[in-house]
Design a protein that fits this description.
By secondary structure, the protein is α/β, with parallel strands linked by helices. The protein has 7 helices and 8 strands; from the N terminus they run αααβαββαββββαβα.
């Protein structure tokens, strides 16, 4: 009987179709996932305990050791109740001073600072009340460099001092020399019209000066200077001393200037050009007439009031004769026939 029961237990059942390996009649249940069941229930399932006895779990580790207080998971607040209510502040009575101890006087109250004056505010770098704050500076665009500060230009005109020749001319001609300046390194002497010829003769014949060449002579028109509308400029050069000097004379409109052609013959055509362009007359000139424009040209082109356009029409209409010319229209191309 025992053998038969063993054969029944060890002999696999072949009832029904099977595929692959041998499959038991009943599949075993999967183990529970971690944390899905209570540890106490799991222990109850594994072991059978007497009635009325609870299973002991790993919670034993959380029991406090004898003589050691179990720490709380929440920080304790001094004076707070176990239910979590906030602590109420306690009034602390001042302790009376001990006998024999030195009494400490309370500190005197701090006096408020006096109001600051505008002068003190300015000295401290603060703006006085009522003054408008400076507008905020505009932010520079990304990648844009601010423009550098503008550079100061050089001093154009300065007074000539410490020059032996200029000092000698001033000493010789006195009040006739009204100005002695240097502009971009060019020395300029301004003289009255009555002393122009005397100064030019001195500059040419004196052994220390020897200005033997008149390189140019021109004029400048200043309409806003009433009574001194023109400056005549004589430019001199000393070949021996390699030195240059300019002489200026102020004239009123319509006033004549002494001619320097008898001193420097090369000034002949230069004075004629000044007469042609500005209308200035030179006393003592041997042949004062126009040199660039026709004798009857209207006006003088380098005056500031001279109009730029249409002045030539007046002269051309007067001196140029226009004639119509007949031509053979049959020689014109056929494509221009509609224009005839």
């Amino acid at each position: 009987m025992a053998d038969e029961s063993e054969d029944k237990v060890n002999k696999p059942t072949t009832e029904g179709p099977t595929t692959g390996a041998d499959v038991p009649e009943k599949a075993q249940p999967l183990p529970p996932e971690a944390g899905s069941t209570d540890p106490a229930a799991e222990i109850e399932a594994k072991t059978e305990l007497p009635a009325g006895e609870k299973p002991k779990t790993e919670a034993k580790a959380e029991e406090a050791l004898p003589g050691v207080e179990k720490p709380s998971k929440t920080p304790a607040i001094e004076g707070a109740s176990e239910k979590g209510e906030p602590a109420t502040p306690e009034k602390v009575a001042p302790t009376p001073p001990k006998e024999g101890a030195a009494s400490v006087k309370p500190a005197p109250p701090v006096k408020p600072a006096p109001p600051r004056t505008p002068a003190a505010e300015k000295s401290a770098g603060e703006k006085p009340a009522g003054e408008k704050p400076a507008p905020p500076k505009a932010a520079t665009a990304a990648g844009h460099k601010p423009a550098p500060p503008a550079k100061k230009g050089p001093t154009v005109t300065v007074e000539i001092t410490g020059d032996p020749l200029i000092d000698k001319i001033k000493q010789r001609f006195g009040e006739a020399v009204t100005e002695a300046v240097a502009t971009f390194g060019q020395q300029i002497i301004r003289v009255k019209k009555e002393s122009l010829i005397e100064l030019c003769l001195y500059l040419k014949d004196d052994d220390e000066t020897l200005f033997d060449m008149c390189t140019d002579l021109t004029a400048i028109h200043w309409p806003e200077r009433a009574g001194q509308e023109f400056d005549v400029v004589v430019m001199l050069y000393s070949v021996a001393n390699n030195r240059r000097l300019r002489i200026k004379v102020a004239l009123a409109d319509g006033e004549a200037c002494p001619s320097v052609t008898p001193i420097w013959e090369g000034a002949n055509w230069m004075e004629r050009e000044a007469y042609d362009m500005f209308g200035l007359r030179f006393e003592g000139h041997p042949d004062l007439r126009r040199i660039l424009l026709p004798p009857d040209w209207p006006g003088h082109p380098l005056r500031k009031e001279y109009p730029i356009e249409y002045r030539d029409n007046e002269w051309t209409d007067k001196h140029i004769e226009y004639r119509e010319v007949d031509y053979d229209t049959s020689l014109i191309d056929v494509k221009y026939a509609e224009r005839r």
